Amino acid sequence: MKKYTLADLRTFERNENGFIICPAGDYTAIEKFPERCIFGERCSFGKCCIFGECCSFGKCCSFGEDCKCEQNYEFEKLFQIGYIGSRDDTTQFWLLTDKSILVRCGCFCGNIDEFIEAVKGTHGDTLYAKEYIAAAELAELHFGVKERNHAEK
């Protein structure tokens, strides 16, 4: 597996949305990543990594000890689903070490309850709302955490 450095990241191509396209590889030499990185499958990350806003990860990524997500939260697992909702893009659900779930969806970043409320406020009872809520429920199922019954509230 190729080992990449921060200098390598600066040479990677960006997609039409400005995200850096990061091929599969070993990123353990990098401690802090810039914003808007997309990582390929089977990437590995070193101890104490910090990822910039809007980073997303491919299937089978493994994270080293003390990795942080978003606003420096410690997390255990990442569940990502795409391409859904009004943005036709990925939504990320992070199982934090306190067993709560943090959600990143476009510009939104907050806990899963705040996410559901924002979805209902923005999309009402549309197909988009149903997709986002179903994704949140799937993330809870995946993590084995049930924060509340979203359909009743």
Jot down its keywords:
153 residues; alpha/beta; five-stranded antiparallel beta sheet; three-stranded parallel beta sheet; 3 helices; 8 strands; 22% helix; globular
What does this structure look like?
There is one protein chain. The chain is 22% helix and 25% strand. With 153 residues, it is of the alpha/beta class. The strands form two sheets. It has a five-stranded antiparallel beta sheet. β7 (101-105) and β8 form a beta hairpin. α2 packs antiparallel against α3 (127-143).
Low-confidence spans? none
Overall shape: globular
Q: What portion of residues belong to β-strands?
A: 25-35%
Percent range of helical residues: 10-25%
CA(first)-CA(last) distance:
47 Å
* Major sheet: arrangement of strands: 4-5-6-7-8
Detail the topology: elements first, then pairings:
Layout: H1 6-9, E1 20-22, E2 37-39, E3 56-57, E4 68-69, E5 73-84, E6 89-96, E7 101-105, E8 108-111, H2 112-123, H3 127-143
Helix pairs in contact: 2-3
